[in-house]
Design brief:
Helix content: 25-40%
Bound molecules: FE2/S2 (inorganic) cluster
Shape: globular
Structural class: alpha+beta
Radius of gyration: 28 Å
CATH topology of the largest domain: Ubiquitin-like (UB roll)
CATH class of the largest domain: Alpha Beta
Distance between the termini: 105 Å
Number of helices: 7
Oligomer: single chain
Number of domains: 2
CATH superfamily of the largest domain: Beta-grasp domain
Largest sheet: 5 strands, mixed
Order of helices and strands: HHEEHEEEHHHH
CATH architecture of the largest domain: Roll
Strand order of the largest sheet: 2-1-5-3-4
C-alpha cells in the first residue's frame, strides 16, 4: 500500500491545471507559433491591402486598387460606379450580374477583379453607340420585356452573347440559352420575343 493517499482528478482540478498551464505558456511565449501568429498572407499581399490593377471596361482603362478577394461585380459597382450590373444572389444563380469578358458572357459575382486584368469587359453601360441603343436594348423596350427592370441588364448582356453565339434559332433554343438569367417578374414570354426580334435583325 502507498504512503500517499491517492488523489483522483475531477473536472475542477483538470480545468484549473489547464488554465494555469495555458496562461503560463502565453506569458512565456511558449505556445506554438500557429497559436499566436498574425493571419498569413496570400502571395505576399497582407489581408486588407489593395492591389493596383487596371480594368479595361467599355473601351476605357480604369486603374483601381482592390483587395484580391474583391469580385469583378463589386469592383464594377463600388469602385467604378458602374451600377448597371446588378447584384442579385451574389452566388452565381440569378444572372443579374452578367457581363461580357472578351466577348464571352460570365457571371461577374463568380470571378475576381484581379483575374480580369487586360481583358475586354463590357457592361450594359457600354452597349449603346453614338447615342443609339443597342438593337437588343431597343427590342427589350419595344417588346416591354421587363417590369421592375432589376434583371434586365443581365438579360440584355446574355441576349447579346446568345445572338453572337448563334443560339437563338427558335424560341425553345432562346429559352434554353437564356435559362441562366432569372426574372422574378416572370417577363419570360416578352424577353423571348425581344431576343427573337433582335436575333432576326442581326441576321438581316
Ligand atoms: Fe451573380 Fe446572381 S448576382 S448570378
Ligand atoms: Fe423584374 Fe425581371 S423585370 S426581375
Amino acid at each position: 500500500m502507498s504512503d500517499h493517499p491517492q488523489v483522483r482528478p475531477n473536472r475542477r482540478t483538470v480545468l484549473k491545471a489547464g488554465g494555469v498551464t495555458a496562461a503560463g505558456a502565453i506569458a512565456a511565449g511558449a505556445l506554438p507559433a500557429t497559436a499566436t501568429a498574425a493571419p498569413s498572407t496570400v502571395d505576399g499581399v497582407e489581408p486588407g491591402a489593395g492591389v493596383q490593377i487596371t480594368l479595361r471596361v467599355n473601351g476605357a482603362d480604369h486603374p483601381v486598387s482592390v483587395e484580391p478577394r474583391v469580385t469583378l461585380l463589386d469592383a464594377l459597382r463600388e469602385r467604378l460606379g458602374l451600377t448597371g450590373t446588378k447584384k442579385g444572389c451574389d452566388r452565381g444563380e440569378c444572372g443579374a450580374c452578367t457581363v461580357l469578358v472578351d466577348g464571352q458572357r460570365i457571371k461577374s459575382c463568380l470571378t475576381l477583379a484581379v483575374m480580369r486584368q487586360g481583358q475586354r469587359i463590357t457592361t450594359v453601360e457600354g452597349l449603346a453607340r453614338d447615342g443609339q441603343l443597342h438593337p437588343v436594348q431597343a427590342a427589350f423596350i419595344r417588346r416591354d420585356a421587363f417590369q421592375c427592370g432589376f434583371c434586365t441588364p443581365g438579360q440584355i448582356m446574355s441576349a447579346v452573347a446568345a445572338i453572337e453565339e448563334g443560339h437563338t434559332g427558335s424560341d425553345a433554343e432562346i429559352r434554353e440559352w437564356m435559362s441562366g438569367n432569372l426574372c422574378r417578374c416572370s417577363c419570360y414570354p416578352n424577353i423571348v420575343a425581344a431576343v427573337r426580334d433582335a436575333a432576326k435583325e442581326a441576321r438581316g
